[in-house]
Amino acid sequence: MVQINFARKEVNCKIVYYGCGLSGKTTNLEVVHEKAPSDRKGELTSIATEGDRTLFFDFMPLDLGKVGGMSTKFQLYTVPGQVYYNATRKLVLQGADGVVFVADSQRSKLEENIESLKNLEENLRENGLDIRKIPLVIQYNKRDLPDAMPVEELDEKLNWYGCPTFEAVAIRGEGVFPTLKKLSAMVLAKLNKEYGVGSRKPARTESRAQAAKASSGEISTSDRPAPTRKPAAKLQRQSALETATATAAPPATERRKGAAQTERPARSEPARPPRRSPPPPRERDPLRTAARRRTPPPPPARSPETRRSGSGNAVFYAIYALLALVVIGVVYLLVSGKLNEWIANL
Description:
CATH superfamily of the domain at 3-194: P-loop containing nucleotide triphosphate hydrolases
Radius of gyration: 55 Å
Structural class: alpha/beta
Helix content: 40-55%
Order of helices and strands: EEHEEHEHEHEHHHHHHH
CATH topology of the domain at 3-194: Rossmann fold
Number of strands: 7
CATH class of the domain at 3-194: Alpha Beta
Largest sheet: 7 strands, mixed
Number of helices: 11
CATH architecture of the domain at 3-194: 3-Layer(aba) Sandwich
């Protein structure tokens, strides 16, 4: 995705070189880095194995100057051509603004080209991009080899979307910059369409020329612009509106005079009595407050029914105590053997 910094007036675009293994992606970047001006290019970072295959990706920032008052910078990436690095391919494609598909023109590499092109479409779809909408350029590399297929046959087999194609021999630098220039123009055109980047306002040459003629006195009546006339219906509506507003509302001066005549003196309201201040709170004696808190509450008043039941219970308890004493005396006489004497005496 394009990165626009309006504060620094800078636009950063990302271009990815895609293709099968050993198709010439890294060679394209090396040629661009070698021939680009030193003040317009950054450092080329490349990670390669012993077989001179790109293991991860190449990165090179390229400054193309200012477009529409904003400096435009392109970041060029390549992806690994090996199939088992598909996760890295997908990662590098994130936020891509344009893609260069580098195809190997050899007939023996046709199946690998087709597989890589399908893989490009799938990875773009997983990143939320459409291969039909993203700027895409196909480069037929290695055109100097004897096994190179004709361009017409390559278009039939690989150019499914009708995108621009270029023949190239990247190892000699042929066709490298035309491919990059075409894709850069497509990316900038898309940015201009979506964000307005790179658009310039046309200079008003005619009005300036007429102003110069008018100042020198050379302008004629034919050169002067015709005065714009309003339609008759519009003039009628405007006049009707003016008359309606004139009859509906009097002028401001008349309104002021009428307001001055009808103005009445303001009535003087009686003075309100001042509000009374609340009395100061009474001081409480702490000893009395403590004594009140310590005294227990009085017992609840007993009703007549509870009084009667209480007196009846007292009589019952007295009789029960008397019987208990009698029983205790009898038991004592039995134990002491004096019961028989007492009965005999009776």
